[in-house]
Each structure stands twice: as structure tokens, then as C-alpha cells.
Fold:
Amino acid sequence: MKNRPLDIVTKINETYKDDQKKQIKELRRCVIDGRKSGNLLLVGAAYCCLSEICTESDDLHGMLVNSLKAVTILKDTDQYVLTARAYFVLGHAYLNQGNYQMSLVCDEIAYGIVKKHRIKGQLRITALNNLSVSYHAMEETRKSINYLSKCIDLLKEESDDAYTDLVMYSINLAGCYKDVGESGQAENTLAKVFDILEKVDFSPLVCDYYLRRAIIAYMRKDIAAGNGYMDDAFDIFPKNVYPLPIYDDLCEVAHVITKNNDKVRSDKIFELMTVYEKNGKGTLEQLFANRMMADYYKQFGEYKLSAEHYAKCEELNERQMRELKEMQMKLHNAAKNTEAEIRRLNRKMRENEKLVSREPMTKLLNRSALLTVSAEFIALAAKKKQKVGAIFIDIDYFKECNDTYGHAKGDEIIKEVASVCKDEESSAVRFARYGGDEFFGITRGLTDGEVADIARRILRRVRDKNIPNEKNPNGHIITLSVGIVNVNITSKTDTIIEIANYADKAVYHAKNAGRNVAYFLNYDVKDISGKPASYLKLDF
Structure:
């Protein structure tokens, strides 16, 4: 009798597997009947299945509400399979929401249930994969590799024909190896599943396989192989696919191809970006598509078009935050019977809010949080007639340093520079990790001299650490190129993108001047076209 709720909902799912509307109707009837009869296990089982249906249709609100209700009802019962499945959905929902810390919490609970009660088969495979995804999102890549390797080994033991899952997990594992600089392991991982690729009938996955192989080939300096894999990807590229699964790989390939001056393939990627921007329906899709377009235009020196897309990103980010707040309100209102669980999870979310807004490795703001802080700074500065400053920092010869000393050493250098930046933070000064080896500081209400002094201190402290970099002709140590601007804010419509572009130009000026230097762009001195034109070299 104890498995009866699971038996009931399983029968409903099997009976109406080709009629989702009928399936949902029957599951909702189970909720009503369970409430009337006091059979809360049936209610929890129905909510669990409803949450899984919402996952298939990308209904994030439905995923959150139904899985949270299911977890609250089932977590202290003997319905271990259903409880684990509900935590899977809840973790997936938080992951899609960008709340990686809460996603990891849910996935760890689910795996703990599976492991404690020795649940085998697909449920254990799913638990291992979900943990790997959450750890990767938290940039704990070694843990991600560990769980994903176990997942693949178990999949091979359990099934001889799970071709799609095996290719998908192998792509993810290769990505993890790539992230820790083990390109050989990444290549071997993908090569092992090449022979079963023709048995995978999901074209976006096959496309991502070739994209990942192209990235790794470029990483190994095998340009010809990388170009070949890119051409394979172009041949099958889905024109209207949801862009999130392949966004990162496509974006990374775009950077490599443009640096290789491969105009033909760059134009093909540009066409794909244009389609994504046009067809993306959700806010997150639009946000990612515009980021891709902005990066593309920046790579080719089209700074005005790049700025327009970055500005669009800022608008979309604000919309996403509004949608998130609306969803949280709906979640609160819809889950009245699970208030205790909501309070516990919301408390956990508040505790981790600062962690989520921070870039995990450096503990500086991430780019999303930077946009939020920047908007606040600009609004306050406009109200108080203050200046907003930007400090753009680029580590000199960082790629060469990575190639010489390895990615682990590169990560240490990133952390050292971040630590110096963090020491300068205050209520009027915030720093973010802007890109791989780029950092961005924003200030409010400071004079030109005060902003310049911050840059001087950072330059001096990093230089004085004497971190070796034999590829840097400036003393064979780690140095920085810094661009600074300090702008009078006259309107709340002034955007950080515009200000950042001026600081970026000052960095470019510093690099052309030999690096290991800071240049201050005097915003008030204009050239004949009305653009700022005066650069001041800072002594430090």
C-alpha cells in the first residue's frame, strides 16, 4: 500500500502519455481527491508529476510551485523516489533562474536520498548528472568532472543503447576538462562517442558536439581540424533552436574565429546570432542573443553597434529582475499551504543572495550584479549631480602567461588582482570581474584625482607583488593596463555601457603606449567631432 500514490500517478502518466491536457486534468483531480480524503501522499505524488510536465514545457513558475509543494509534502515520508524526483525539478528550476547555490542544495539532497536508500537505474544517473551540472555552474569543475564520470560509467553499465544521453554527458565532460586546461582528455572524451553520433536523432546535440570539438581543436592549435568541425556544425545547425544549450560554445568559437581573421565563418556565426536575436521569445534568450551580438560587433571594432546591444542587455537584465520578483510573488501566493517550507527556502535564498551576486572565484561582483549596482550609482549620481567613474583593468600578456605557466597559475593571478581591487571597495567604489582577465570598477561621487589614485594604488600594488611572467617585457612580472574616466551624470538615462566604452578606449590607449600604465580620458576635452580626445598618463 505504501507505493500506491506512485502507482496511481505512474498509471496516469502511462495512460495519457500522448495527451498532455488529459494527463494534467487527471493529476489535478488526484490533488482534489487527495485533499478531500486526507491522502496527502497522493497530493504530493500528483504535484511531483505536474512539476515534471512543467519542465517539459519550460514553465519555470509551474516547476517551482509544484515541485516545492511536492517536496514539502513528501520529504519526511517513505516516498523516496517521488521525493528525489521533486527535488530534481526544484533544483532544475533554481538553475534556470540563475540561483546556482539553491540548485546545488536541492541536487545534494536528491543525491543523498538516492544514495541512502540505494536507488539504482535512471534515477541515480540523473542524480549524478544534476550534481555535476550544479557544481559546474558554481565553477567547482573538479567535483563536476568526478560526478559526471561516475554518471557516464553507470550509464554504460545500465544501458547499451542510451546514445543520446551518452553523447550529451560526454559533451559536458569534455567541457569540464577544457575548463581545467586538459584539452587532451577533452578530445579523447569526445572521440570515444564519435562512432555512435549517427545514432543520435537530435540535431542540436549533434551540432553542439561539433562545436565542442572545434573549440578543443582550436585550443590545441589545430586550426584545420577546428575549421573542419565548424563546417560540420554549420551543415546541421538548427536555425530556430532555443539558443541556451549551445550559446557558450558558439560564443567561444566566435572569438577564436574572428581572431583568426576567418571572415567566411565569422559571417556565418553572425547570421546565426541575427536569427537568435530575432526569434528568441523569452527574456533570457533575448539577453543571451544580444550579448552575443554585442561581443561580435566589439570584436570587429563596431563600437557603436556593440554599445547599442549592450544597452539592450541592460534593459533585458532589468526586465529579467522584474520577472524574477513577479515569479517570487506568485510562488508565495500559490503555495499558501507550504508556508513553512517557503520561509525556510526564502531564508536560505537571502543568505546566499550575496554569494549569487558574486563571481565565485574572485568574490567580486559578477556582470549581472555590476549592471544592477551601476544603475543604482547612476541614479544617485544624477539626483545629487555627482560624477560616476569607470576603471577598466586588463592584465598584460595574460594569455601568454597562461600558456607558459598553466591555467592553475592563471587562476591564482586572477585572484591576486581581484584581492587588490576588493581592498579598494567601499560604499562609493565597487569592482566586478568583467571577463577572463578584465576587471571593471565603478565609482560614485569621487573627484578625478580620487579615481586616479585608486588606479595608481592598484597598479603599484600588483606590480610590487613581483608575480613572474617571463612573457612580459615590462620587468618579466605581472603588470596591468588601466583606463579611467570620470563623467558628470546629467540624466538617469546615462548608461554604464556608454561610460565603460570610454574607459575601454583609455585601456586601448594604455596598451598602445606599451602597457604597465594607466591613462585617464578627460571627458570634457572634445575633438572636432565632439568626442572625448584628451588622454592623461598617470604616474605611479
